[in-house]
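Progress note, sequence design subtask.
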Protein backbone atom coordinates (compact mmCIF):
# COMPACT_ATOMS: atom_id res chain seq x y z
CA UNK A 1 0.00 0.00 0.00
CA UNK A 2 2.90 2.34 0.77
CA UNK A 3 4.35 1.65 -2.67
CA UNK A 4 0.99 2.41 -4.25
CA UNK A 5 0.67 5.84 -2.61
CA UNK A 6 4.31 6.67 -3.24
CA UNK A 7 3.97 5.76 -6.93
CA UNK A 8 0.71 7.72 -7.25
CA UNK A 9 2.40 10.75 -5.66
CA UNK A 10 5.33 10.51 -8.09
CA UNK A 11 2.97 10.41 -11.10
CA UNK A 12 0.87 13.24 -9.68
CA UNK A 13 3.92 15.42 -9.04
CA UNK A 14 5.27 14.68 -12.53
CA UNK A 15 2.04 15.50 -14.35
CA UNK A 16 1.28 18.52 -12.14
CA UNK A 17 4.71 20.04 -12.75
CA UNK A 18 4.52 19.32 -16.48
CA UNK A 19 1.13 21.05 -16.65
CA UNK A 20 1.59 24.05 -14.37
CA UNK A 21 5.18 24.92 -15.29
CA UNK A 22 4.54 24.86 -19.03
CA UNK A 23 3.86 27.92 -21.18
CA UNK A 24 0.55 26.43 -22.26
CA UNK A 25 -0.78 26.80 -18.70
CA UNK A 26 -0.97 30.58 -19.19
CA UNK A 27 -3.24 30.07 -22.20
CA UNK A 28 -5.14 27.51 -20.16
CA UNK A 29 -5.84 30.17 -17.53
CA UNK A 30 -7.13 32.48 -20.27
CA UNK A 31 -9.43 29.77 -21.66
CA UNK A 32 -12.58 30.80 -19.69
CA UNK A 33 -12.35 34.32 -21.11
CA UNK A 34 -13.28 33.15 -24.59
CA UNK A 35 -16.58 31.41 -23.66
CA UNK A 36 -17.50 34.38 -21.48
CA UNK A 37 -16.67 36.82 -24.25
CA UNK A 38 -18.55 34.91 -26.92
CA UNK A 39 -21.44 34.27 -24.55
CA UNK A 40 -21.73 37.96 -23.71
CA UNK A 41 -21.57 39.03 -27.36
CA UNK A 42 -24.09 36.47 -28.60
CA UNK A 43 -26.44 36.99 -25.66
CA UNK A 44 -26.52 40.74 -26.31
CA UNK A 45 -27.17 40.11 -30.00
CA UNK A 46 -29.91 37.59 -29.20
CA UNK A 47 -31.50 39.94 -26.68
CA UNK A 48 -31.50 42.80 -29.17
CA UNK A 49 -32.96 40.63 -31.94
CA UNK A 50 -35.57 39.20 -29.58
CA UNK A 51 -36.46 42.68 -28.37
CA UNK A 52 -36.93 43.90 -31.92
CA UNK A 53 -38.87 40.88 -33.12
CA UNK A 54 -41.06 40.03 -30.13
CA UNK A 55 -42.19 43.48 -29.05
CA UNK A 56 -45.49 44.00 -30.91
CA UNK A 57 -46.02 47.33 -32.66
CA UNK A 58 -49.47 48.92 -32.64
CA UNK A 59 -50.25 51.83 -34.95
CA UNK A 60 -52.43 54.54 -33.37
CA UNK A 61 -54.51 56.60 -35.80
CA UNK A 62 -55.80 59.76 -34.12
CA UNK A 63 -55.07 63.29 -33.10
CA UNK A 64 -52.00 64.30 -31.12
CA UNK A 65 -53.84 64.72 -27.81
CA UNK A 66 -55.13 61.12 -27.82
CA UNK A 67 -51.73 59.74 -28.83
CA UNK A 68 -49.94 61.72 -26.10
CA UNK A 69 -52.40 60.42 -23.52
CA UNK A 70 -51.88 56.84 -24.70
CA UNK A 71 -48.09 57.26 -24.75
CA UNK A 72 -48.10 58.64 -21.19
CA UNK A 73 -50.30 55.75 -20.01
CA UNK A 74 -47.96 53.26 -21.69
CA UNK A 75 -44.95 54.73 -19.92
CA UNK A 76 -46.80 54.40 -16.64
CA UNK A 77 -47.48 50.72 -17.30
CA UNK A 78 -43.89 50.17 -18.48
CA UNK A 79 -42.52 51.53 -15.19
CA UNK A 80 -44.65 49.01 -13.33
CA UNK A 81 -44.25 45.80 -15.35
CA UNK A 82 -41.19 46.45 -17.53
CA UNK A 83 -40.70 47.51 -21.12
CA UNK A 84 -39.45 44.23 -22.61
CA UNK A 85 -42.76 42.65 -23.69
CA UNK A 86 -44.99 45.71 -23.70
CA UNK A 87 -46.57 46.90 -26.93
CA UNK A 88 -44.91 49.76 -28.82
CA UNK A 89 -47.21 52.58 -29.92
CA UNK A 90 -46.56 54.49 -33.16
CA UNK A 91 -48.75 57.51 -33.98
CA UNK A 92 -50.21 58.32 -37.41
CA UNK A 93 -52.47 61.18 -38.49
CA UNK A 94 -55.88 60.07 -39.78
CA UNK A 95 -56.52 60.07 -43.53
CA UNK A 96 -59.73 60.39 -45.47
CA UNK A 97 -59.99 56.69 -46.31
CA UNK A 98 -59.58 54.96 -42.91
CA UNK A 99 -59.99 51.42 -44.26
CA UNK A 100 -57.31 51.94 -46.90
CA UNK A 101 -54.97 53.45 -44.31
CA UNK A 102 -55.46 50.49 -41.96
CA UNK A 103 -54.79 48.04 -44.78
CA UNK A 104 -51.65 49.91 -45.79
CA UNK A 105 -50.31 50.01 -42.22
CA UNK A 106 -50.95 46.32 -41.60
CA UNK A 107 -49.02 45.47 -44.78
CA UNK A 108 -46.10 47.76 -43.90
CA UNK A 109 -42.84 45.80 -43.46
CA UNK A 110 -41.08 48.53 -41.49
CA UNK A 111 -42.06 48.65 -38.74
CA UNK A 112 -43.97 45.33 -38.74
CA UNK A 113 -47.34 46.42 -37.33
CA UNK A 114 -49.48 43.83 -35.50
CA UNK A 115 -52.64 45.91 -35.11
CA UNK A 116 -54.12 49.34 -35.81
CA UNK A 117 -55.92 51.28 -33.08
CA UNK A 118 -58.33 53.99 -34.24
CA UNK A 119 -61.39 55.86 -32.98
CA UNK A 120 -59.63 57.81 -30.26
CA UNK A 121 -60.14 57.30 -26.53
CA UNK A 122 -63.92 57.72 -26.78
CA UNK A 123 -64.64 54.92 -29.29
CA UNK A 124 -61.50 52.79 -29.74
CA UNK A 125 -61.47 50.21 -32.53
CA UNK A 126 -58.78 47.60 -33.13
CA UNK A 127 -57.97 46.06 -36.51
CA UNK A 128 -55.58 43.14 -36.95
CA UNK A 129 -55.21 39.37 -36.61
CA UNK A 130 -55.30 39.15 -32.80
CA UNK A 131 -57.71 36.28 -32.25
CA UNK A 132 -55.03 34.13 -30.58
CA UNK A 133 -53.11 36.93 -28.89
CA UNK A 134 -55.04 38.12 -25.88
CA UNK A 135 -51.92 39.64 -24.33
CA UNK A 136 -51.86 42.56 -26.76
CA UNK A 137 -55.57 43.16 -26.30
CA UNK A 138 -55.21 43.14 -22.51
CA UNK A 139 -52.28 45.54 -22.62
CA UNK A 140 -54.16 47.95 -24.87
CA UNK A 141 -57.22 47.78 -22.61
CA UNK A 142 -55.08 48.68 -19.60
CA UNK A 143 -53.32 51.50 -21.46
CA UNK A 144 -56.62 52.97 -22.74
CA UNK A 145 -58.13 52.73 -19.25
CA UNK A 146 -55.21 54.63 -17.73
CA UNK A 147 -55.29 57.18 -20.56
CA UNK A 148 -59.01 57.83 -19.98
CA UNK A 149 -58.39 58.30 -16.25
CA UNK A 150 -55.85 61.02 -17.04
CA UNK A 151 -54.79 62.92 -13.96
CA UNK A 152 -56.70 60.49 -11.71
CA UNK A 153 -54.33 57.72 -12.81
CA UNK A 154 -51.28 59.67 -11.61
CA UNK A 155 -48.94 57.43 -9.65
CA UNK A 156 -48.99 58.12 -5.91
CA UNK A 157 -45.75 59.17 -4.30
CA UNK A 158 -44.68 57.60 -1.00
CA UNK A 159 -41.35 57.43 0.83
CA UNK A 160 -39.16 54.33 0.47
CA UNK A 161 -37.02 53.37 3.44
CA UNK A 162 -33.75 52.09 1.97
CA UNK A 163 -32.29 51.35 5.42
CA UNK A 164 -34.98 48.83 6.30
CA UNK A 165 -33.77 45.26 6.99
CA UNK A 166 -33.74 42.98 3.92
CA UNK A 167 -36.93 41.02 3.42
CA UNK A 168 -37.10 37.26 3.15
CA UNK A 169 -38.46 37.50 -0.38
CA UNK A 170 -35.52 39.60 -1.57
CA UNK A 171 -33.01 37.30 0.15
CA UNK A 172 -34.65 34.22 -1.35
CA UNK A 173 -34.52 35.69 -4.86
CA UNK A 174 -30.87 36.73 -4.50
CA UNK A 175 -29.82 33.37 -3.10
CA UNK A 176 -31.63 31.56 -5.90
CA UNK A 177 -29.68 33.61 -8.45
CA UNK A 178 -26.44 32.81 -6.61
CA UNK A 179 -27.31 29.10 -6.62
CA UNK A 180 -28.00 29.10 -10.36
CA UNK A 181 -24.78 30.97 -11.18
CA UNK A 182 -22.63 28.75 -8.93
CA UNK A 183 -24.17 25.58 -10.32
CA UNK A 184 -23.66 26.69 -13.91
CA UNK A 185 -20.04 27.68 -13.30
CA UNK A 186 -19.36 24.34 -11.60
CA UNK A 187 -20.84 22.46 -14.55
CA UNK A 188 -18.96 24.47 -17.20
CA UNK A 189 -15.60 24.20 -15.42
CA UNK A 190 -15.98 20.45 -14.87
CA UNK A 191 -17.03 19.92 -18.47
CA UNK A 192 -14.08 21.95 -19.70
CA UNK A 193 -11.41 20.59 -17.35
CA UNK A 194 -12.36 16.92 -17.06
CA UNK A 195 -11.29 16.27 -20.65
CA UNK A 196 -7.74 17.52 -20.02
CA UNK A 197 -6.53 14.08 -18.94
CA UNK A 198 -7.57 12.57 -22.27
CA UNK A 199 -5.13 14.49 -24.46
CA UNK A 200 -2.21 13.76 -22.15
CA UNK A 201 -3.08 10.07 -21.92
CA UNK A 202 -3.47 9.69 -25.68
CA UNK A 203 -0.11 11.42 -26.22
CA UNK A 204 1.66 9.09 -23.81
CA UNK A 205 0.00 6.03 -25.34
CA UNK A 206 1.02 7.05 -28.86
CA UNK A 207 4.62 7.72 -27.77
CA UNK A 208 4.81 4.43 -25.80
CA UNK A 209 5.82 6.44 -22.72
CA UNK A 210 3.04 4.86 -20.73
CA UNK A 211 4.53 1.41 -21.25
CA UNK A 212 7.83 2.55 -19.74
CA UNK A 213 5.99 4.00 -16.73
CA UNK A 214 3.91 0.84 -16.36
CA UNK A 215 7.07 -1.24 -16.10
CA UNK A 216 8.18 0.71 -13.03
CA UNK A 217 4.98 1.42 -11.05
CA UNK A 218 1.55 -0.18 -10.65
CA UNK A 219 -1.04 0.77 -13.24
CA UNK A 220 -3.55 1.59 -10.50
CA UNK A 221 -1.15 4.16 -9.06
CA UNK A 222 -0.75 5.70 -12.51
CA UNK A 223 -4.53 6.09 -12.82
CA UNK A 224 -4.92 7.73 -9.41
CA UNK A 225 -1.82 9.90 -9.84
CA UNK A 226 -2.89 11.27 -13.21
CA UNK A 227 -6.38 12.01 -11.96
CA UNK A 228 -5.24 13.87 -8.85
CA UNK A 229 -2.52 15.73 -10.77
CA UNK A 230 -5.07 17.24 -13.12
CA UNK A 231 -7.40 17.87 -10.17
CA UNK A 232 -4.63 19.84 -8.41
CA UNK A 233 -3.90 21.85 -11.56
CA UNK A 234 -7.63 22.53 -12.01
CA UNK A 235 -8.05 23.67 -8.39
CA UNK A 236 -5.05 25.98 -8.78
CA UNK A 237 -6.62 27.46 -11.90
CA UNK A 238 -9.97 27.74 -10.07
CA UNK A 239 -8.36 29.71 -7.24
CA UNK A 240 -6.70 32.02 -9.77
CA UNK A 241 -10.01 32.57 -11.55
CA UNK A 242 -11.82 33.25 -8.27
CA UNK A 243 -9.21 35.84 -7.29
CA UNK A 244 -9.31 37.53 -10.69
CA UNK A 245 -13.10 37.56 -10.62
CA UNK A 246 -13.13 39.18 -7.17
CA UNK A 247 -10.67 41.85 -8.35
CA UNK A 248 -12.72 42.51 -11.48
CA UNK A 249 -15.91 42.93 -9.45
CA UNK A 250 -14.09 45.17 -6.98
CA UNK A 251 -12.94 47.53 -9.73
CA UNK A 252 -15.99 47.43 -12.01
CA UNK A 253 -18.99 47.21 -9.68
CA UNK A 254 -19.81 50.16 -7.44
CA UNK A 255 -19.23 49.02 -3.87
CA UNK A 256 -17.19 46.01 -4.95
CA UNK A 257 -17.55 42.53 -3.56
CA UNK A 258 -19.41 43.80 -0.49
CA UNK A 259 -22.52 44.48 -2.61
CA UNK A 260 -22.85 40.87 -3.79
CA UNK A 261 -25.74 38.88 -2.27
CA UNK A 262 -24.46 36.78 0.63
CA UNK A 263 -25.11 33.02 0.32
CA UNK A 264 -26.97 31.28 3.10
CA UNK A 265 -23.81 29.74 4.59
CA UNK A 266 -21.71 32.91 4.18
CA UNK A 267 -19.04 33.71 1.61
CA UNK A 268 -16.01 32.03 3.29
CA UNK A 269 -17.75 28.69 3.76
CA UNK A 270 -19.47 28.94 0.40
CA UNK A 271 -16.17 29.43 -1.43
CA UNK A 272 -14.62 26.53 0.52
CA UNK A 273 -17.57 24.29 -0.35
CA UNK A 274 -17.30 25.40 -3.97
CA UNK A 275 -13.72 24.15 -4.15
CA UNK A 276 -14.65 20.89 -2.38
CA UNK A 277 -17.65 20.17 -4.60
CA UNK A 278 -15.66 21.06 -7.68
CA UNK A 279 -13.05 18.49 -6.62
CA UNK A 280 -15.75 15.88 -6.01
CA UNK A 281 -17.43 16.57 -9.34
CA UNK A 282 -14.10 16.54 -11.16
CA UNK A 283 -13.07 13.20 -9.65
CA UNK A 284 -16.38 11.61 -10.60
CA UNK A 285 -16.32 12.71 -14.23
CA UNK A 286 -12.53 12.80 -14.61
CA UNK A 287 -12.37 9.11 -13.71
CA UNK A 288 -14.97 8.38 -16.38
CA UNK A 289 -13.04 10.28 -19.04
CA UNK A 290 -9.78 8.65 -17.98
CA UNK A 291 -11.39 5.22 -18.39
CA UNK A 292 -12.56 6.29 -21.85
CA UNK A 293 -9.05 7.40 -22.75
CA UNK A 294 -7.62 4.06 -21.58
CA UNK A 295 -9.83 2.17 -24.01
CA UNK A 296 -9.15 4.46 -26.98
CA UNK A 297 -6.08 4.39 -29.17
CA UNK A 298 -6.58 7.48 -31.32
CA UNK A 299 -7.99 10.97 -30.87
CA UNK A 300 -10.92 10.07 -33.15
CA UNK A 301 -11.89 7.19 -30.86
CA UNK A 302 -11.66 9.51 -27.86
CA UNK A 303 -14.05 12.00 -29.47
CA UNK A 304 -16.51 9.27 -30.40
CA UNK A 305 -16.46 7.61 -26.98
CA UNK A 306 -16.50 10.83 -24.94
CA UNK A 307 -19.59 12.21 -26.69
CA UNK A 308 -22.08 10.07 -24.67
CA UNK A 309 -20.28 11.04 -21.45
CA UNK A 310 -20.61 14.72 -22.35
CA UNK A 311 -24.33 14.33 -23.06
CA UNK A 312 -24.70 12.52 -19.74
CA UNK A 313 -23.09 15.50 -17.98
CA UNK A 314 -25.60 17.85 -19.61
CA UNK A 315 -28.52 15.65 -18.52
CA UNK A 316 -27.18 15.46 -14.97
CA UNK A 317 -26.82 19.24 -14.93
CA UNK A 318 -30.46 19.58 -15.93
CA UNK A 319 -31.41 17.08 -13.22
CA UNK A 320 -29.48 19.03 -10.58
CA UNK A 321 -30.84 22.38 -11.82
CA UNK A 322 -34.32 21.22 -10.77
CA UNK A 323 -33.25 21.51 -7.12
CA UNK A 324 -32.61 25.27 -7.36
CA UNK A 325 -35.29 27.18 -5.51
CA UNK A 326 -36.65 24.15 -3.64
CA UNK A 327 -33.78 21.99 -2.34
CA UNK A 328 -36.01 20.08 0.11
CA UNK A 329 -38.41 18.87 -2.57
CA UNK A 330 -38.44 15.27 -3.76
CA UNK A 331 -36.48 16.20 -6.90
CA UNK A 332 -33.96 18.24 -4.90
CA UNK A 333 -33.33 15.40 -2.45
CA UNK A 334 -33.04 12.89 -5.31
CA UNK A 335 -30.48 15.10 -7.08
CA UNK A 336 -28.50 15.44 -3.82
CA UNK A 337 -28.55 11.67 -3.19
CA UNK A 338 -27.64 10.57 -6.72
CA UNK A 339 -23.82 10.56 -6.65
CA UNK A 340 -23.16 12.01 -10.12
CA UNK A 341 -25.45 15.01 -9.61
CA UNK A 342 -24.85 15.42 -5.87
CA UNK A 343 -22.01 18.02 -6.07
CA UNK A 344 -24.01 20.33 -8.34
CA UNK A 345 -27.14 19.98 -6.21
CA UNK A 346 -25.26 20.56 -2.96
CA UNK A 347 -23.49 23.72 -4.15
CA UNK A 348 -26.94 25.16 -4.93
CA UNK A 349 -28.14 24.12 -1.47
CA UNK A 350 -25.18 25.96 0.10
CA UNK A 351 -26.41 29.19 -1.45
CA UNK A 352 -30.01 28.73 -0.27
CA UNK A 353 -29.94 26.71 2.97
CA UNK A 354 -27.89 27.81 6.04
CA UNK A 355 -27.80 24.33 7.58
CA UNK A 356 -24.37 22.68 7.59
CA UNK A 357 -25.13 19.04 8.42
CA UNK A 358 -26.42 18.26 4.87
CA UNK A 359 -23.02 19.25 3.50
CA UNK A 360 -21.15 17.02 5.95
CA UNK A 361 -23.40 14.11 5.00
CA UNK A 362 -23.15 14.96 1.30
CA UNK A 363 -19.36 15.16 1.31
CA UNK A 364 -19.10 11.82 3.13
CA UNK A 365 -21.59 10.24 0.70
CA UNK A 366 -19.73 11.56 -2.34
CA UNK A 367 -16.37 10.41 -0.91
CA UNK A 368 -17.71 6.85 -0.63
CA UNK A 369 -18.81 6.83 -4.26
CA UNK A 370 -15.55 8.40 -5.39
CA UNK A 371 -13.65 5.58 -3.69
CA UNK A 372 -15.87 3.00 -5.42
CA UNK A 373 -15.54 4.65 -8.84
CA UNK A 374 -11.79 5.10 -8.46
CA UNK A 375 -11.34 1.46 -7.56
CA UNK A 376 -13.48 0.26 -10.47
CA UNK A 377 -11.85 2.73 -12.82
CA UNK A 378 -8.35 1.72 -11.76
CA UNK A 379 -9.11 -1.94 -12.43
CA UNK A 380 -10.57 -1.16 -15.86
CA UNK A 381 -7.67 1.19 -16.57
CA UNK A 382 -5.19 -1.59 -15.73
CA UNK A 383 -6.88 -4.01 -18.12
CA UNK A 384 -7.20 -1.67 -21.10
CA UNK A 385 -4.52 1.01 -20.98
CA UNK A 386 -1.74 -1.09 -22.59
CA UNK A 387 -3.95 -2.53 -25.34
CA UNK A 388 -3.04 0.05 -27.96
CA UNK A 389 -2.62 -2.29 -30.93
CA UNK A 390 -5.19 -3.22 -33.56
CA UNK A 391 -8.41 -4.55 -32.10
CA UNK A 392 -9.65 -8.06 -32.71
CA UNK A 393 -12.96 -8.52 -34.54
CA UNK A 394 -15.88 -9.22 -32.24
CA UNK A 395 -16.58 -12.63 -33.83
CA UNK A 396 -13.12 -13.81 -32.83
CA UNK A 397 -13.52 -12.77 -29.20
CA UNK A 398 -14.63 -16.25 -28.09
CA UNK A 399 -11.60 -17.94 -29.71
CA UNK A 400 -9.28 -15.53 -27.97
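Output:
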Amino acid sequence: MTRFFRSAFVIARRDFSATVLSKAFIFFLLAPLFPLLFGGVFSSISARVASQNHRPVVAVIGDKADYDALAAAREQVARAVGDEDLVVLVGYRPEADLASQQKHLLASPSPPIRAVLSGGLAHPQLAGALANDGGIIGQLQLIISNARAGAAAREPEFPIHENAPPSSGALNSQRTDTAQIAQTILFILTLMLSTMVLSQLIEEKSNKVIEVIAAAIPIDAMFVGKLFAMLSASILALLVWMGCGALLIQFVKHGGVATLPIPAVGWPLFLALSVIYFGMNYLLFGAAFLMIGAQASTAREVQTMSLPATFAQVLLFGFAAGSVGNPDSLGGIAAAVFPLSSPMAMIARAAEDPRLWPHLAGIAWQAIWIAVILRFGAQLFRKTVLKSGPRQPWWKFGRA
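The longest strand covers residues 113-118. Work on this subtask will continue into the next period as scheduled.
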